[in-house]
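Key result, reporting period 2: structure in, sequence out.
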């Protein structure tokens, strides 16, 4: 959405595409999960009186729109991609099948996982943790508007403290709003490290993959 109030920002889309092209150039296999809050947020719709299931399905459809836009941005720059959707819409995306996704990754394609988990009441965070666990990812990177996890909202609390490292249990016990509890629990069960970082800072994904200290890392107790 960028600085816009709604929809897809060409500037942000171009920046994200450039980041992912750098990842591909490093030879790293990458899957991407995109939310749909720039178009429609299911929780907000439910809060305003909509049926929660219907609102969540609308949110999942919004993720498909964003995924197709990112696919276009990447393929115009020469990177082969596949959009795989948990919601079946075969005219525009492949249905999500784990083995097929793994084959695309083995062939060097970037896979965009759309449609959330395909079920209402589950967030995009949970979809990301689920897909990462399914494909055996080494790390789950969560791009946000801030540069890590804080003990309060840094956008409204100037004195908020940023953590460099946390355990899954600390996130759950402190009630830190990093990802929902289901996503954190799923990552914990599968020993999947999470790095929360500022997606809007150019080059951050490449820095992370080169091992530079960026954002907040969430992992098991050492």
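The corresponding designed sequence is given below.
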């Amino acid at each position: 959405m960028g600085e816009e109030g709604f929809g897809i920002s060409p500037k942000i889309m171009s920046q994200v595409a450039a980041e992912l092209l750098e990842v591909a150039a490093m030879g790293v296999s990458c899957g991407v999960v995109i939310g749909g809050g720039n178009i429609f947020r299911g929780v907000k719709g439910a809060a305003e009186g909509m049926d929660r299931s219907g609102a969540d399905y609308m949110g999942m459809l919004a993720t498909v729109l964003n995924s197709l836009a990112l696919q276009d941005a990447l393929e115009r720059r020469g990177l082969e991609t596949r959009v795989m959707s948990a919601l079946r819409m075969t005219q525009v995306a492949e249905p999500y099948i784990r083995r097929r996704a793994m084959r695309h990754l083995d062939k060097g394609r970037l896979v965009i996982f759309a449609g959330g988990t395909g079920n209402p009441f589950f967030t995009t965070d949970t979809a990301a943790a689920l897909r990462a666990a399914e494909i055996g990812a080494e790390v789950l990177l969560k791009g946000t508007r801030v540069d890590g996890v804080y003990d309060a909202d840094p956008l409204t609390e100037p004195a908020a403290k940023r953590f460099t490292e946390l355990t899954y249990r600390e996130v759950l016990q402190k009630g830190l709003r990093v990802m929902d509890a289901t996503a954190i629990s799923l990552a914990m069960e599968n020993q999947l490290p999470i790095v929360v970082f500022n997606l809007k800072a150019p080059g951050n994904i490449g820095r992370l993959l080169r091992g530079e200290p960026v954002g907040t890392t969430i992992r098991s107790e050492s």
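The longest helix spans residues 52-75. The helical segments are 10-25, 42-47, 52-75, 98-106, 124-135, 168-174, 181-189, 204-209. This case is discussed further under Risks and Mitigation.
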